[in-house]
Amino acid sequence: MTDTAAGTRGGFPQISPVENAPPELGRFADAMRRLQDLTVSTNPDSSLWASAAQYVENACALLDGHQAPEHEAPAGRVLELPGLGHPLLPPWTLTESGPDGVTMQGHFTRSHVGGNNAVHGGMIPLFYDWLFGMVVSTAGIRPTRTAYLHVDYRKITPIDAPLTATGRISNTDGRKVFIFSTMTSADGSLLSEANGLMVRLLPHQP
């Protein structure tokens, strides 16, 4: 835990990647993403909604009581899994990482649609914010917070299509870390690009 001044709220727990996550976590996260896709793409009758809700509620009951602090729960910390094993992150996987930047590959699904089978415009900044965090983490710069994030949309981002995103540190200035990122389709077309500022936190900052 980062040292903090007495009586001051702040500090970050040491959150590290999980090397030996339960293999069933990936299966569970995949099923949760599938459930999200089906929730927004099906139109069953009321009885089927009720039956499905009961199954989901039963799953919640199984997990309830096993909550763990964020630095202990494995979801969101497994580099080998799509979305790091976090079911609310899109199924992207880290393929290259280092001090010079990161590359991720993956796709968006039906639950990310904003309209006309295109990825919701608000989903793109969320993805880039995640990518920015991966950039600073793999460069050993942490903890940080996002100060600003700007996205330029160049083309519609499709769902269920292989995509590639890269991010790199473009400049640093004291605690400020400037990042530039792009997202491209399989044919190399530029779909969007983003630049942002991550700020390394002081020990007392939350």
Automatic annotation (TrEMBL):
Residues 1-22 are annotated as: Disordered. It catalyses: hexadecanoyl-CoA + H2O = hexadecanoate + CoA + H(+); tetradecanoyl-CoA + H2O = tetradecanoate + CoA + H(+); decanoyl-CoA + H2O = decanoate + CoA + H(+); (9Z)-octadecenoyl-CoA + H2O = (9Z)-octadecenoate + CoA + H(+). Keywords: Apoptosis, Cell membrane, Cell projection, Cytoplasm, Fatty acid metabolism, Hydrolase, Lipid metabolism, Membrane, Transit peptide. The keyword Lipid biosynthesis does not apply. It is a peripheral membrane protein. The keyword Membrane applies. It comes from the Bacteria. Its EC number is 3.1.2.2. This is Acyl-coenzyme A thioesterase THEM4. It comes from Mycobacterium triplex.
